[in-house]
Specification:
Layout: H1 3-8, E1 10-12, E2 17-21, E3 27-32, H2 41-49, E4 57-64, E5 67-72, E6 83-86, E7 100-103, E8 108-113, E9 118-123, E10 131-132, E11 138-139, E12 155-157, E13 163-166, E14 170-174, E15 180-183, E16 185-188, E17 199-201, E18 205-208, E19 217-220, E20 223-226, E21 235-238, E22 242-249, E23 254-257, E24 261-267, E25 270-273, E26 277-290, E27 294-296, E28 302-310, E29 314-319, E30 327-331, H3 335-371, H4 376-418, E31 421-428, E32 432-436, E33 439-442, E34 447-455, E35 458-462, H5 466-473
Parallel strand pairs: 16-18, 17-19, 18-20, 19-21, 20-22, 21-23, 22-24, 23-25, 24-26, 25-26, 26-27, 26-28, 27-29, 28-29, 28-30, 29-31, 30-32
Antiparallel strand pairs: 1-2, 2-3, 3-5, 4-5, 6-9, 7-8, 8-14, 9-13, 10-11, 12-13, 14-15, 31-34, 32-33, 34-35
Helix pairs in contact: 3-4
């Protein structure tokens, strides 16, 4: 009784039952013309013993609805398809990463990666397991399939097609269709608020169309553009340029710019800028530390209250108010630069002392060589020590040369501080404090269209009429 016989159906028990096999050869079963008779069991066993069925015969046939299963083979197991894992990878789940930020308030996660970093990888598929039919013939299995990368911007596939590598530094992003990207530019259409969570971005440019609302923070490695305001108790840190089209407001707000800052207005906030600060309208009772220039010459051009410290020059239409609110403008001051300069001077002094000690040690060894008689081994040791000391001296000389180069650059910048000035295009009210370098001038009278400069240890007033100068010095 072959496979074909079973497919046609084999009559049993005077035609009251028929034995069949499934198309895949995995099951042999009985179909009944009438009803199953338990007395057939022994006859079924004899029937199977005399057939070609050699695998999977059940010890006890199993009733399934309207049929009785006599033998069951082993079906093949399909291999598991491969998948794609996204950074951070499963084995790193318990690790803390510098670039991965999670805001528990809104359950949002931002993943930043560096150029050259593996951001996704393929997990290989598994092999299928072959099966056997009731005739003990193998049934071929199907292996799992390899996954396919959906490649977005800022990434490339490795040469072995197993990894996805970032070609830029930025935010790892998976879109709705599964494409993997690394974004060096990121645009947020609304505000930074509880719908977005705090933002940390390593890319080149972040655009926020709305505001950074109170209590939220934004930190970037590149430039930031904010379409509206920075509100109370918000914090914004940009390593690059920062542009705020609206107002930076409230005394608990902190803003840091690694390069230049442009904004519409500032009210009461704390501002730290390594480059230049440009105000589009006014600055009110704020505390600003600026490494470069400060300008407020468009719109109101008003600087009223607070204190502005800057490394270079300042220019505004109006300093102070008719109510004589104290306003402090200190130009030509860069404490960080002066601190770095002092550190470099001390470093040069230390290297110079080390150099002199090494030089004296070499001189002493050279004198000993000429006075004492030593064996060849000892002379060899002396020569080796002298050579090592000379190498140290050369290294110290190179280090001192580099320090002097750094000092020259710093002194050039310090010279620029000496040339700083404070320009008033319209009016400077009483109770404004003008400082340039270490000189300070407290204004007691109103001045118009003047320029303050540092000259011979004092602050002088230029480009104004004699009446203004007399009032300022009276």
């Amino acid at each position: 009784m072959s496979r074909d016989d079973f497919k046609k159906g084999i009559d049993l028990f005077n035609g009251r039952a028929k034995a069949f096999i499934t198309d895949d050869g995995l099951e042999v079963y009985l179909k009944f013309e009438d009803r199953f008779d338990p007395d057939w069991i022994d006859g079924i066993k004899d029937f199977l013993d005399n057939s070609e069925i050699s695998y999977g015969i059940l010890n006890e046939p199993e009733m399934e609805e309207d049929r009785l299963v006599l033998a069951r083979g082993t079906p093949p197991v399909k291999g598991q398809d491969g998948c794609i894992e996204i950074y951070p990878f499963p084995e790193d789940a318990d690790k803390k990463f510098v670039g991965v930020y999670y805001d528990e308030r809104v359950m949002s996660e931002i993943i930043n990666v560096k150029k050259g970093q593996v951001v996704a990888r393929k997990v290989p598929p598994t092999k299928g397991i072959p099966g056997k039919d009731v005739f003990k013939c193998p049934i071929k299995s199907i292996d799992g399939k390899w996954p396919v990368f959906k490649v977005g911007e800022g990434v490339e596939v490795s040469s072995d097609d197993r990894q996805l590598i970032a070609t830029v530094t930025g935010r790892l992003f998976l879109d709705a269709e599964g494409a993997i990207s690394v974004l060096k530019e990121w645009e947020i259409n609304g505000s930074v608020d509880l719908s977005t969570g705090n933002i940390v971005f390593w890319g080149e440019r972040l655009i926020v169309r709305g505001s950074v609302v109170g209590g939220m923070s934004v930190e970037t490695w590149g430039d930031v553009e904010i379409g509206e305001n920075i509100e109370d108790e918000a914090t914004v840190k940009a390593r690059g340029n920062l542009k705020v089209k609206g107002i930076i407001r409230a005394q608990n707000t902190r803003v840091f710019a690694g390069k230049d800052l442009q904004c519409g207005a500032i009210e009461y906030a704390d501002i730290y800028v390594k480059g230049d600060l440009e105000i589009g309208d006014y600055l009110l009772d704020a505390r600003c530390d600026i490494g470069g220039h400060f300008t407020a010459i468009s719109g109101k051009g008003l600087v009223a209250g607070g204190i502005v410290r800057l490394g270079r020059s300042a220019a505004a239409k109006i300093f102070g108010t008719p109510a004589n609110v104290k306003t402090v403008i200190l130009a030509g001051r860069d404490p960080q630069l002066m601190k770095q300069y002092e550190i470099k001077i001390k470093e040069l002094e230390d290297k110079s002392q080390q150099f002199l000690k090494v030089k004296k040690a070499i001189e002493r060894l050279n004198k000993l060589k000429t006075v004492l008689k030593k064996n060849a081994d000892t002379r060899g040791n002396d020569v080796g020590l002298i050579e090592r000391l000379r190498d140290t001296a050369h290294s110290l000389a190179d280090e001192m040369k580099k320090i002097r180069t750094d000092l020259d650059a710093m002194e050039k910048r310090i010279g620029q501080l000496h040339a700083s000035k404070i320009s008033v295009f319209d009016v400077c009210y009483p109770n404004v404090v003008i400082g340039i370098e270490n000189a300070v001038l407290h204004l007691e009278n109103e001045l118009h269209s003047v320029v303050f400069r540092f000259k011979e240890g004092n602050i002088s007033i230029f480009e104004t009429n004699a009446h203004n100068i007399e009032k300022a010095n009276s």
